[in-house]
Specification:
Strand order of the largest sheet: 3-4-5-6
Structural class: alpha+beta
Radius of gyration: 28 Å
Distance between the termini: 67 Å
Helix content: 40-55%
Strand content: 15-25%
Shape: elongated
Length: 176
């Protein structure tokens, strides 16, 4: 083999290696992008489940308040998700919940009051998957109208949040 053929072979080998490397990098980038976007957001899913549990507990407490003759406070019972071997619900805990005149759980008008409301309703600390949940109170922006729009917002530092409206017991859907 002469020098010119050896140089051409070396150049061809170099370009083959570069093209192989580029194809490999392209495939790896595609796989990483695909798997990164196809995995559900764990914080969002966990917060969505808690939002649904919060809403269900608010509804349960309202009907319990009605059934007990509209007292100032009710005892909300929390059950395990799975029944026992006799298919009976297993009680996990009981929590007293202060009820408003509207028949929905009430909170003191402060962020601490909203935090206590979270703990009473869900029977758990302000945490989601080891991330701190921030409880914030927002007063009615226009107190001259007849609508009370005071609310508690429960949010992660970055990511999903939902709101609980104190006047009507409505729980908003989850927002990103």
């Amino acid at each position: 083999m002469d020098k010119q053929q050896a140089a051409q072979e070396s150049t061809r080998s170099f370009y083959t290696k570069v093209i192989t490397l580029l194809v490999f990098v392209g495939l790896m980038t595609s796989f990483i992008y695909y798997f990164n976007n196809s995995v559900p957001d764990v914080k969002y899913v966990a917060m969505e489940n808690l939002q649904q549990r919060f809403s269900q507990s608010v509804t349960n407490s309202h009907w319990q308040w009605q059934a007990e003759g509209r007292p100032n406070m009710i005892m909300l019972v929390h059950y395990e998700p799975d029944p026992d071997k006799n298919n009976q619900p297993v009680e996990r805990d009981r929590r007293p919940i202060a009820m408003g005149l509207n028949g929905y759980p009430r909170a003191e008008p402060s962020s601490e009051g909203c935090g206590k409301l979270w703990q009473m309703i869900l029977n758990m600390p302000l945490e989601v998957e080891s991330f701190k949940v921030f409880a914030e109170y927002f007063a009615d922006p226009d107190e001259e109208d007849n609508l009370d729009q005071a609310k508690c917002r429960f949010r992660l530092s970055v990511g999903p949040s939902f709101e609980y409206f104190l006047a009507n017991g409505q729980v908003s859907s989850l927002s990103r």
